[in-house]
Amino acid sequence: MNFDNQSKPQPAPNDSIESKLSEPDSRCDDKAGSFSSLVVDERVRLMSDGVLNNAGLVLSGIIGIVIVPIMLKGLGADSYGIWIAALSIAGTVGFIDFGIGMSVTREAAASLSDEGTSKAAPFIKSAGCLSLLIGIIGGLVIATLGIPLSRGLHLSEANRSIAATVFALAGASFLVDRLLAFTTAVLSGLRRFDLTNLLATLAAIIRAAGIIVLVKTGSGVVTVMMWQVASTAATAVAGQWLVRHLQSEFRFQLVRFDWSLVRQRVAFGLASQLTSIVEIVIWDIAPLVVGLVLGSKWIVTYYIAQQFPTSIGPIIWSTAEALFPAAVQYGDDRENVRTREILQVGTRWIVVLALPLCMGLWVVAPKLLQAWVGTIPDGAVTTLRLITLAVFMEGLSAASIQVLWGRNAIRTLVIIPCLLMVSSLGLTLLLLPRIGIAGAAWGLVVPMCIASIVYIHIGTRACGVHVWRLIRTTSTGLFVPVLVFLATCLGVNYLTAPGWPGVIAATVGGGLGYLISFMLIGAREEELMLVRKGIEIPRAAGSGLYRRFRHALARIGFLRSGYFLLRSIREAILDSPARGQAELNHEFEPHEDPWNYATVPYQGDRIRREVEMLDAVRATARFGKALEVGCAEGMFTEMLAPRCANLLAADISSVALTRARHRLQNYEQVQFAQWDLRIDPIPGSYDLIVIVHALEYIRNPFYVRRARAKLVNSLRPGGYLLVGTMKVADIYEDAWWGKFFLRSGKWINTFFAEHPALKVVRTEEFYLGKDYVAYDVLLQKNCESITMV
To answer: Whole-angstrom Cα distance, residue 483 to residue 518?
Structure first.
């Protein structure tokens, strides 16, 4: 690809959204038109990305709760205060990124469409350089602020001497944080939310583990801050390694900064930055207004009441953010059907997740506040419930907002939050003196509900779907789960005593009732698939980890023999006819020739060598009556048939026998039978018995011993027994217990050769590559000659 060509601004399919909203939309019918809709897997991906995008958020919150008392105790309040101050300054400075992260995500997502990466790569490279520049400038600002702040924090003499160093390290941490944010934006644009949250999770765990170790070993705040920088830098490097393997054109590179590329996206970036600031003001200014109007003591009431509802907000928005790159990818007006489905799937999934959280808070609000703070402040319950409603209403429009961002509806996305901020502030100032603390909550709820309705209306019009259709598709199947949740949660809440146990019992009980009824009644196809996927992934991961553990254990010298011995005992106990048949059918069902006899040269050579062993003893005559045990699909049977006057081919697998019958349908002297050598008797007696690579599938040594007795008894005096086996693993042949369990070719063949009624005619070893060896032994029963035809 040629990255020297500067990309023009993407034609904004959304540039005219606002101007088109007043026009009748012929696409608002229910027909999908000629464009393909999202496949089920894509809808599942939208939902799973939303869930995955919360993983790092939840884990970081838990780690933060755990690590605070450890650092406070280990560093002391004075040193820990420097840490908090330095990271607070870094967080404040880091908030101002001019919307670069969202712009990078948008361009990376646009590259997933048919246009490819050629247009996006130059901007993303320049954005990477700009992120580095912002990181350097911000880091210098933080380090510089550390000088006056170290004097104004009233630190001890010892901590005053290291404060400047701590702030300088916080500046370095800010720099690598900017590079990590750039990397995360690229991965989000590529819709790899699994990797972004894996990075966030690993970074949080590694950072916390290192801090705990350092604090416990007596290290100071400077060392801890150095670990913060190193761990963040390592995460950024790991993220860039992932980007390089996913889309190498988007990796961070020091190139000549091209302002023209950035200037074309300035409006979008600044709009996203402005709306983020406005959102913070909307949610965080209320306590200040409450204090100015009612007094400082009421700030505490509002602050307490908003803590739990506002903790749901990040979960909703993390879920919604997964829709943005998909909306960009399918943002072309011509693909309106897909954007419509993104809106519908996203809105429903957010509602499905947010409903139990918000209903639970509404129901248990009094007990929750009592368990948390003891005495419930006046108006706190009403305020908590109203703020919860505001959070839910904002979440209801979150999918519409993300779709509008994907369609570049900048004016809409800037005007509505600004109007919401002004109206919320005005209504709060109007209601607070009249109805008290609840006025602040009503001042948030009413404008939020109106803004949510407007967002949904504009989003549905832009995507060509009726509002009522969106409501219908969102609410379908949720009525019964909501009733079950409310009945369970209200009932448990009424019956339990005040305190945390009652709060937990009510919310968990309601949540389980909601989940079960939703899965049984309300869930759609893609939602059921996501749940099954959520169950399968941990199961598969656990199984994979268990296998890796077993294999690692098997490589430890003094444990290796014991491990395989225990494994052999387990497999011997579990061995049964039903299990053996299921195992072989599982191998044959996917496709014919599972062991590649027809395509791998050495497999054919091995069969020919075994046939030559038989030809050497029969000369030109044919064996009178022959039996092949384990005929499989009949490839060896096909070579054996012309050498026998009568041949019975048997196998335990019905699938293999069906194919063998078809292969040898022209051989009248060949009959087939399905039976198991473990338990079934051998019908008749034979001049030749062939059992090639079947005995290794019998894991119980008692079955193998019984099989030898039956085979020898069914062999006529002077008859031949051809046994073919494989070396399963070195350990089965080298361990002292190998000869007792008869799990590998060497010991099986030796065991057969040791039978007093048999004598060895010929043995062969055939190396199949690597550690695989085929062992063949031709045995003859003592006494008279056999029948030859």
So the answer is: 11
Does residue 496 sit in helix, strand or coil?
A: coil
pTM score of the predicted model = 0.67
For the stretch 155-166, pLDDT in tens is: 677 777 788 888
Q: Which residue has the tokens 């044919």?
A: 622
DSSP state of 520: I
SS3 state of residue 33? coil
Query: In this structure, which long-range contacts are made by residues 646-654, counting pairs with CB atoms below 8 Å and at least 24 apart in sequence?
Result: 646/671, 647/671, 648/672, 648/673, 648/683, 648/684, 648/686, 649/673, 650/674, 650/675, 651/584, 652/577, 652/580, 652/581, 652/584, 652/676, 652/677, 653/581, 653/584, 653/585, 653/588, 654/581, 654/585
Given a cut of 80, whether residue 747 has pLDDT beyond it is yes
**Alpha-carbon radius of gyration of the chain:** 36
CA distance 395 to 397: 5
User: According to the 3-state scheme, what is the secondary structure of 83-100?
Assistant: HHHHHHHHHHHHCCCCCH
Q: Residue type for 7, please?
A: S
d(CA 415, CA 106): 21
Task: Say how far residue 699 (Cα) sits from the centre of its chain.
Answer: 36
First-to-last alpha carbon distance for the chain, in angstroms, is 73
Identify the CA nearest to 644 among candidates 631, 626, 628, 619: 626
Of 615, 626, 612, nearest in space to 787 by CA: 626
Spatial distance between the Cα atoms of 104 and 181, rounded to a whole number of angstroms: 10
Residues contacting residue 665 through CB under 8 Å, at least 6 positions apart? none
Query: At residue 480, does pLDDT exceed 50?
Result: yes
What phi, psi does 60 have (nearest 5°)?
Answer: -60, -40
Place of tokens 């399918």: 330
Q: Can you read off the two tokens belonging to residue 30?
A: 């229910």
How many Å apart are CA 3 and CA 117, to the nearest integer? 9
Give, as one character, the DSSP assignment of residue 423: H
Instruction: Spell out the residues 6+ positions from residue 360 whose beta carbon is closer than 8 angstroms to its own.
Output: 485, 489, 506, 507, 510, 511
Long-range CB contacts for residues 254-257, cutoff 8 Å, separation at least 24: 254/129, 254/132, 255/125, 255/126, 255/129, 257/126, 257/129, 257/130, 257/133
Tokens describing residue 533: 């996927």
CA distances from 602 to 124, 407, 697, 774 (A): 52, 60, 21, 11
DSSP state of 683: P
| Span 133-156, pLDDT tens digits | 888 998 898 888 877 776 666 667
Task: Locate 769 and state its tokens.
Answer: 């590559």
Task: Return the structure tokens found at 491.
Answer: 């009932």
Residues 6+ apart with CB under 8 A from 179: 128, 131, 132, 135, 236, 240, 252
CB 83 within 8 A of CB 224: yes
Whole-number Å distance between alpha carbons of 142 and 93: 8
Sign of CA dihedral 436, 441, 444, 449: negative
571 by Cβ neighbours in 10 Å (0-12 / 13-18 / 19+) ranks as: middle
Helix and strand totals (H; E) in the chain: 31, 7
Which tens digit of pLDDT belongs to each residue from 543-597?
A: 777 677 766 666 666 677 787 888 888 888 988 888 888 888 888 888 888 877 7
Q: Report yes or no: 554 and 729 within 8 Å, Cβ to Cβ.
A: no
